């Protein structure tokens, strides 16, 4: 009985080393780029049309979401977004593995989400091998501007990632994390809610 040949796409989705120059993967990236090109070049008033393009592109969407152009991704079908999702200008998602984003997630400008990685040793890297690990972002997350989220990261629920952070390790629920590398600096508590409500009532 002959053993089944594993395709480069199957290797990619399984987190194994694969060659991105594979014909099937190249074709799928081109398809995604055509949709992204159309999305990015529609006039600002065509909000509904842009939304329909992302529904075609992404693996999963909910009713309420908005992505400011320009936007970039590799495949699109590995991206899943929850309800009430908002992304500001210049979001880049290299979705060679699944990127799962929860409900009520807000992303500031110039954020990069990278599931892809490359060998450190040049011998394999020069043969165009790479690998990918999934990224998970929980519910009620705010990601500041110019943040980089690296492969294999899990960001919990109710998290704030400060601007300019480079996330190299998992971030637990209910925390504020900042820096390069990104580190938890404190928990988010009810006092944070009271602080902003107080300022709103005072008109600050």
Automatic annotation (TrEMBL):
One of its GO terms (molecular function) is galactoside O-acetyltransferase activity. CDD domains: LbH_MAT_GAT (cd03357). Its EC number is 2.3.1.-. Keywords: Acyltransferase, Repeat, Transferase. It holds the Pfam family Mac. Signal peptide: none annotated. Residues 9-63 form the Maltose/galactoside acetyltransferase domain. This is Acetyltransferase. PANTHER family: ACETYLTRANSFERASE YJL218W-RELATED (PTHR43017:SF1), GALACTOSIDE O-ACETYLTRANSFERASE (PTHR43017). Belongs to the transferase hexapeptide repeat family.
């Amino acid at each position: 009985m002959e053993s089944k040949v594993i395709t480069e796409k199957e290797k990619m989705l399984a987190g194994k080393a694969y060659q991105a120059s594979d014909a099937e993967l190249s074709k799928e990236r081109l398809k995604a780029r055509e949709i992204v090109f159309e999305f990015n070049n529609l006039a600002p008033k065509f909000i509904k049309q842009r939304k329909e393009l992302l529904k075609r592109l992404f693996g999963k969407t909910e009713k309420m979401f908005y992505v400011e152009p320009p936007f970039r991704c590799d495949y699109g079908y590995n991206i899943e977004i929850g309800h009430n999702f908002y992304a500001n200008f210049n979001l880049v998602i290299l979705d060679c593995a699944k990127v799962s984003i929860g409900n009520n997630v807000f992303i500031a400008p110039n954020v990069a989400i990278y599931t892809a990685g490359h060998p450190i040793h040049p011998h394999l890297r020069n043969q165009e091998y790479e690998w990918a690990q999934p990224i998970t972002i929980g519910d009620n997350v705010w990601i500041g501007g110019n943040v980089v989220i690296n492969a294999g990261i899990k960001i919990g629920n109710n998290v704030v990632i400060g601007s300019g952070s480079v996330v190299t390790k998992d971030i637990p629920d209910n925390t504020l994390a900042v820096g390069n590398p990104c580190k938890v600096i404190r928990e988010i508590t009810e006092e944070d809610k009271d602080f902003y409500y107080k300022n709103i009532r005072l008109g600050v």
